[in-house]
Specification:
Strand 7 and strand 8 form a beta hairpin. This protein has no helices and nine strands. The protein is mainly beta. The strands form two sheets. It has a five-stranded mixed beta sheet, with no helix packed on it.
């Protein structure tokens, strides 16, 4: 059964003209994931499994929070944990780790507030 993990108080501070790159990295073996990213500038982006996408300039992301929805499945019987790291411009903003005994298909929600320095 799926379990929802919410992380709604994440922030990233940077220069308003900084290009923002969001990255998902599957750490545990066998993860299959689909990550949807909803930005304030109405661009919806998709990352399949591990990967990265440009979200645009930081100044275009400060109006409201950016929402990230990541659905993970791990059908591999040898993996005990589901581990996923989320980055903004190579800075780790969230490390997700759950035992497969908790759930084999977590749904991870991140809400990120981008702030001009």
């Amino acid at each position: 059964m799926s379990k929802i993990y919410r992380h709604e108080k994440l922030t990233y501070t940077g220069n308003e003209n900084e290009e923002i790159v969001f990255k998902v990295k599957m750490i545990s073996n066998g993860n299959v994931a689909r990550t949807n990213i909803e930005t304030p500038n109405a661009d919806d982006l998709l990352i399949e499994d591990s990967g990265k996408k440009s979200l645009g300039l930081l100044k275009s992301l400060t109006k409201s929070k950016t929402a990230v929805y990541c659905s993970v499945k791990n059908p591999t019987p040898v993996a005990d944990n589901i581990i996923v790291d989320f980055y903004v411009n190579n800075t780790l903003i969230h490390h997700h780790d759950n035992l497969k005994t908790e759930t084999e298909d977590p749904f991870i929600i991140l809400k990120i507030k981008f702030i001009k320095s």
